[in-house]
Write a structure and sequence with these properties.
Elements lengths: L20 E4 L10 E7 L6 H15 L17 E5 L6 H17 L3 E5 L6 H8 L7 E6 H6 L11 H4 E11 L1 E5 L7 H10 L5 E4 L5 H13 L4 E4 L3 H9 L5 E4 L1 H10 L2 E6 L25 E9 L4 H16 L1 H9 L3 E2 L4 H22 L5
Parallel strand pairs: 3-4, 3-5, 8-9, 8-10
Antiparallel strand pairs: 1-2, 2-4, 5-12, 6-12, 6-13, 7-10, 7-11
Helix pairs in contact: 1-2, 1-10
Length: 372
């Protein structure tokens, strides 16, 4: 357990339809993006709630135009690119598509979802940091590239605090500890006992180097006292699929990618990493109540733009995305993916990134994890 005797820092605490979409061919380019999807409205009725929301969303996006700095007044002057630091089918992908569809209706421009899961999300995050600060490139990223990676890589092609401007936190959730269903373990204690007896022969998957999935398992390994081989993947869907095929035996993952495999019975969930039981999975115990008091490692994600983007434009985006996250239809779709819709001010998102970096830095240094 994580006690003064263990020599580890305290556990990181949690941070404070009827619409028809046509998938258009992605533009040809030399980019190595994972998947480009254009949302263009095709003929067909909107859900009543969605239709009612469009005028309000458009009003939020255009409000304050006379006071916006030159260059931002014409926003958007072309389609938006929505960089996603994870692959198709991931929790970030679900959120990006929910928000992208509604933004498209509010701004009368296409929103191109561009999945770039490589490098544990650092590739997409770097692309967002290096984009033009004009609001035409949005980035959805998460705690791995934003709060953990700076302590794991000697050279990172971006500085989260310097090169990115937070817009809004989009969702939070715990990780679920999940194992291949053929393993005999039915509880965390069973699985830890099996892992200890395997003498390092078990393999665990992660959603990528420097991800919360990776760091949470490394922390849990340390306090539970077992060895395992790390096998990183480019995102949650392939990592979870590896466990379903028994290529890896365990994973910490957001609920979204786990859901179909839990339903099929190929994967078994043992616990959640939240401080208290997660309302969306009320029957799963926490790691804290499973013998590891105080263990907590929450997932979070949010939307950012390049540093230097006009503050007024960030404010308009913040207001519009908060409105989307508050809409019942959007909340229902995000909650169905096992996520808790968030929201809030840009300043709160910036404070969250800083506080999570402060919490995890000593853990990373104590565990001596480097990825260079």
């Amino acid at each position: 357990m994580n006690t003064p005797e263990s020599g580890l820092p305290p556990f990181p605490a949690k941070p404070g339809s009827d619409t028809h979409f046509a998938r258009l061919p992605a533009p040809k380019s030399g980019s190595k993006s994972g998947s480009d999807t254009h949302f263009a409205r095709a003929p067909g009725p909107l859900r009543r709630g969605a239709a009612d929301a469009v005028p309000a969303l458009a009003a939020l996006l255009v409000s304050g135009l006379p006071t916006v700095a030159a260059g931002a007044q014409d926003w958007p002057s072309r389609p938006l690119r929505f960089l996603v630091a994870a692959g198709p089918g991931s929790s970030l992908d679900v959120i990006a598509r929910v928000i992208g569809e509604r933004l498209r209706d509010g701004i009368a421009q296409q929103v191109v979802v561009d999945n770039r899961p490589a490098g544990g999300g650092t590739v997409a995050t770097a692309a967002g940091a290096q984009s033009a600060p004009d609001g035409h490139t949005l980035l959805i990223s998460f705690n791995g590239p934003l709060a953990l990676a700076p302590f794991l890589y000697a050279k990172l092609p971006y500085d989260p605090g310097r090169d990115l401007a937070p817009v809004v936190v989009t969702s939070t959730s715990p990780n679920l500890l999940a194992i291949h269903a053929d393993l005999p373990a039915r509880t965390v204690a069973d699985w830890v006992a099996q892992a200890r007896s395997s003498a390092g022969r078990l393999t665990y998957a992660s959603v990528g180097n420097a991800s919360s999935s990776h760091l949470t398992m490394e922390l849990f390994r340390s306090v539970a006292g077992f060895d395992a081989v790390h096998s990183p993947y480019n995102g949650a869907p392939p990592a979870v699929a590896a466990v379903a095929r028994n290529e890896a035996q365990a994973v910490f993952s957001a609920p979204t990618a786990l859901a179909p495999h839990l339903q099929s019975g190929r994967i078994r969930a043992l616990a959640v990493t939240s401080a208290s039981r997660y309302p969306l999975f009320p029957d799963l115990p926490t790691l804290s109540e499973s013998g590891y008091p105080g263990f907590e490692a929450m997932l979070w994600n949010g939307i950012l733009v390049a540093s230097g983007t006009p503050a007024a434009l960030i404010g308009r985006l913040n207001g519009a995305i908060n409105a989307i996250l508050a809409h019942p239809d959007a909340r229902s779709r995000i909650t169905a993916a096992g996520l808790d819709p968030a929201g809030g001010r840009p300043e709160a998102f910036a404070a969250l990134i800083r506080s999570e970096a402060t919490r995890w830095e000593p853990v990373i240094r104590k565990l001596a994890i480097r990825l260079d």
